[in-house]
Amino acid sequence: MDQDEFFTPSGSAGAEGFTGTANMEQFNRIHNRKPDSRGQFEAPFAFLQEQIIFPNMVVSVELEMGSGALENVLAALEEKSTIIGVYFDPENDSNYIPVGIEAAVGSITPVSGEHVKVLLQGRRRVTIEELSFANDKASVVAKPARESARKTEETLAKMRLIKKQIIDYAELRGYSAVNLSRALDNIDHPGFLSDFVGALLDIPFEDRLDLFFELNPAKRISLLLPLLFSELHMLRLEAEIQSRVQSEMDNMQREAYLREKMNQIQKELGDTKSTDPDVRQLEELFEKTELPPEPEAAVKKELERLKATPGLSPESGMIQSYLRWILELPWSQQTVDNLDIRHAEKVLDENHYGLKKAKDRILEYLAVRSLKPKRDRQPILCFVGAPGTGKTSLGKSIASALERKFVRVSLGGVHDEAEIRGHRRTYIGAMPGRILQTMRKAEAINPVFMLDEIDKLNADFQGDPASALLEVLDPEQNYAFSDHYLEVPYDLSKVLFITTANTVASIPPALLDRMELIEFPGYIEEEKIAIARQFLIPEQLLQSGLDEDNVTLPDETLSVIIRSYTYEAGVRNLEREIGSILRKVARLKSEGKELPVAIAPESLSTYLGSEEFFQQSAEANDEVGLATAIAWTENGGEIMPVEVAVFSGKGNLQMTGQIGEIMQESAQAALSYLKSRAEAFEIPEDFFEDVDIHIHVPEGSIPKDGPSAGITLATALTSAVLGVPVRHEVAMTGEITLRGRVLPIGGVREKVLAAYRAGIKTVLLPQKNLKDLDEVPAGLREQLKIVAVEHMDEVLDSALAGQPKFIKPPKASKNKRKKEATGVDETSEGEKPN
After folding, report:
1. Do 324 and 397 belong together in one domain?
2. Which among 144, 506, 555, 637 could disulfide-bond with 750, CB atoms 3.0 to 4.6 Å apart, if both were Cys?
3. pTM: predicted TM-score of the whole model, two decimal places
4. Residue 272: what pLDDT?
C-alpha cells in the first residue's frame, strides 16, 4: 500500500467544536485502544494535513473515496475503535512528527462524487513508535502520552490570566462569553486548558502544531500566553480601525444627507449655488474674474460637471485643479508702463555699463509706445553674448525701467515639448507648461518674460521644445497661445519676451528668425575696470563687511587681475577674484592685524597665488615666415602667430596646431595664390616640387578654425618662400580668395582691441570692415594705424619689411638630378613620386 494514499486533502473543514457542543452519542460507542504489557498498541492511521485535532476537540476532515486513509477509517469504525492521526514535519515533509492524536470516528457523509466528510473526536495524544505498511496494511505502533497534572504557582497564575483574557477574546470574536465562562470554570488541568484555548484561537498552523507537539502542560501554557496576547492586540486594533472607518462613513452619509437636503431647500428658494465649500469658493472666484468668452464658457461647463460629480471622486479633484488654474491666471490684469525715456535711460545706466545697442533698442521701444501706435507689437529680443556679459541682469533692469513684473524661466536642458505646452488632462498629475505656470506667478499679462539659455534646448523622442516655442515667440500667433492642459487660447501678445543665448549656432533657424538679435560684445580692459569701480568693488565691499576706507584697488592692480588672473569676455571671474582679495583683507581686520592701504600689483600673488594666464604680446623683431593674425574667441579677441617653414622635400604641405577644416582650406587657398603669383615673384616652376612646407599655429592644445586667418597664412607663406621678413608691429585679419581678394570677416571690435593690448601698431583690415570700427572706442582708434586692404598685393606691401625677392631653392634631390640627366626615374618599387 502506498504511503501517499493516506494524505487528507488540504482545505479540510474547520473545527466543529469541543466535546459537549456536538452530538456525542455517535462517539460514545467508540472505545480507546488498550495498551499491551509494554504500554503500546497497534492501530490504523491517516495522515492529517493542516488540520490539528486537540484532545476533546471535534473536527471534520475530507477524505478521498477509495483511498487507503478512508479504508483505515472504515476499518476502525467497524471495529468501534479509534484511529491515529499522524502529522508531517513542516520543515521536512519526508519525516513525520513523533506525536499524534488518537481519535474516535463519527459520522461519514458524502460531500461530492469523490470525497466524503468524516467527523473525528480527539481523545488523547500518543507518541508514535513505528509506522508500518506491511502486508498491504497501514498501521502505527503508538503509546499513550503521559501528561503531568502538577501545577506550580506560576502555572496557576498563567491559567487565571488566560481564562480572563480568553473572555475578552471571545467577546471581540462574537462568541458567547457566558457559555465560555461556564466551560472555563470546570477546567482546572493546565493541559486541558491549553488545548481548549489553543483550539479557539485563530493562529497559524505552525503555532498550532507547536502547541500540539508540546507534551508538558506547563510549557504548553507558556507557549499559549504570548499567542493569546498577540491575537488580542490584533483584534483590538481591527476593532479600533473598524470603529473609526464606521464613524467616518456615518459622518459622510450624514453630510451627504444634509447637503442633499440643503440642495432641495436652495432649489425651492431659487438659489443655484453649490453647498460644497470648495465648489462655492470656485464659483465666487469665477464671479470676480473677468474672462474672455472661450475661457468663460469652459469654466461654466466644468463647474456644472463638478456639481454633478461626487465630492470624493478623483475626477472632482481634477476638475477643481483645472478650474483653479484658469481662474488664477491673469487674463486682464496688467501693470501700467512707465514711458518716461529719461527715467528708463537713468535706470539702465545706473545698473549697467556700456551695452549701448541693447539700451538704445529699449529706449526706441519706449519712444514708440509713448506715441500710442495703432498697432502695438511687443518685440521679441534675443541677447547673444559670452557668459558674464550682463544679459540676464539687463532683463531685470528693463523690467525695473518699465515698472513691469519680471519673470524668468531657464530652458537649459529642457527636452520635453510638454515642458512648454503642458500635458493633456487625461494624464495623471497633468499641469500646464512652464509658460503658463510662470504667467500665473507674474500676476499680470504684460510682464518682462526672460527665457534664459534658449540655445541649450534639447530634442528627443518626447518632442522638440524649440518647435513649441515657435508659437510663443511669434507676435502673429501668440495672441492665442494654446496650452495642452487648458485647451483654451491665452493671450501672450502683451508680454515682452527676452531670450538669452551664448551662441546662435544651436538655435533652429525658424526660431531664430522670429527674434531680434542684439549682440553683447565682450568687455575691453578699460570697460572692465570701469565696471569694477562702479559695480563690482562696492558690491564685494558690502558682502565682505568692509568699506572704502579699509582698502583700495588701484587701476594698475585691476589691470593685472584682468590680464593675469581672468580669461573671459564678461566680468564674473573678475568679481570672484576681487571678492577673494577682500575676504582675505576682512580676515586681517577680524584678527586685529594691520590692513594694507592699497593692494599693489606686486602683492597680488599673496592674495591670489601665482598668475594663471599669460597674455601674448607682439614679436620684438621682424622674422621670416612669421606673421601675426588676430582672432575672435568667446572670451574676446587675441593675437595668433602663424609660423611657416620651407625645407627640402617632395612638395608636401603639413599643418599642425589643431587647425580646423575651414582654416586648412584657407591655407590651401593661400598656397594656391602664391603658386599663381610665382612668375611675378620670380619663383621657378619646379620650386614647389622640391620643397615641403610646414604651417604651424602655436598653442597646439587649443582648437582653431575660421577663414579670417587667410591673409595671415598667405603673408607667412610668401615671407618664408621669398625670404623677406614680416613687420613685427603689424597684425592682420581677413579671408583670402584664389585670386588674392580680401573678404570681410566678423568680430572686428574684439580683434582690434586684442591687437591694441598686445602692443601692435598697425592693423590690416578688409576694406568692407571699416564700418565696424564705429564699435571701437575713438581714443583707441587714434592710437592704432588702421590700413584697409582689398587685395593680397596691398597686404604684402604693408606687411613685408622690404621688396619681395626670390631666394635660391634648395638643391634638387639626387633622384631628381639623375632623372634630369638620364631620363630614368629611380624611385623604389611601391613609392610614388610627388
Report:
1. no
2. 637
3. 0.59
4. 56
